């Protein structure tokens, strides 16, 4: 079972129109492995999605960083799945730890968003991961399994889902998981899929790692058998994102 390497760039709440165009230019000029070997998806803030989509090289795709949980309407400040579909945005990141912790998004709420996004044809990068306290108390896999269960309950077609394991203690901290730590959780998560969803889904679903990935540490992480790519925050705004994409081959 071949799982195509996947590299996502989460630009978070960063950038001006000028900066965003500069990043897109750098990406456009880069020599990277072919689409057959790596799927690249960048996720600018909502307001820059149309311009980035318009300027981006055709072999890269875009993702929204969030979406509203159901059909749009009287939900001031929200962006609906219908709007993303209307603009031709193919992907959305859901369950990011910053939204879980800062905006109190529960496992169930994330699951509901996954359901609605998938129902209208969006593809989902679904994030899970434990805090440092949870890791230190030995509950990493229980936390990751509970988060995954709430997502899996809403998925019937797994080709449109990429799972991102992002330990909270590694996000934006410069404290990357060791290749062994990442591999251990990815393997456990794949076993969880095997036991709770099915052997085929376990073998084919991509599980990517996120948390302080950079140009220097990506190659060794990418070499782990169950690490199928990365979700990259800080480094996705820098030229080293290209090195991370290149770690696919
Ligand atoms: C992220 O925000 O998904 C992330 C992994 O951030 P960073 O790479 O900056 O740790």
Automatic annotation (TrEMBL):
<protein>
    <submittedName>
        <fullName>Uncharacterized protein</fullName>
    </submittedName>
</protein>
<keyword id="KW-0413">Isomerase</keyword>
<dbReference type="GO" id="GO:0004807">
    <property type="term" value="F:triose-phosphate isomerase activity"/>
</dbReference>
<dbReference type="GO" id="GO:0019563">
    <property type="term" value="P:glycerol catabolic process"/>
</dbReference>
<comment type="similarity">
    <text>Belongs to the triosephosphate isomerase family.</text>
</comment>
<comment type="pathway">
    <text>Carbohydrate biosynthesis.</text>
</comment>
<dbReference type="InterPro" id="IPR035990">
    <property type="entry name" value="TIM_sf"/>
</dbReference>
<dbReference type="GO" id="GO:0006094">
    <property type="term" value="P:gluconeogenesis"/>
</dbReference>
<dbReference type="InterPro" id="IPR020861">
    <property type="entry name" value="Triosephosphate_isomerase_AS"/>
</dbReference>
<dbReference type="Pfam" id="PF00121">
    <property type="entry name" value="TIM"/>
</dbReference>
<comment type="subunit">
    <text>Homodimer.</text>
</comment>
<dbReference type="GO" id="GO:0046166">
    <property type="term" value="P:glyceraldehyde-3-phosphate biosynthetic process"/>
</dbReference>
<dbReference type="InterPro" id="IPR000652">
    <property type="entry name" value="Triosephosphate_isomerase"/>
</dbReference>
<dbReference type="GO" id="GO:0006096">
    <property type="term" value="P:glycolytic process"/>
</dbReference>
<dbReference type="GO" id="GO:0005829">
    <property type="term" value="C:cytosol"/>
</dbReference>
<dbReference type="InterPro" id="IPR022896">
    <property type="entry name" value="TrioseP_Isoase_bac/euk"/>
</dbReference>
<dbReference type="InterPro" id="IPR013785">
    <property type="entry name" value="Aldolase_TIM"/>
</dbReference>
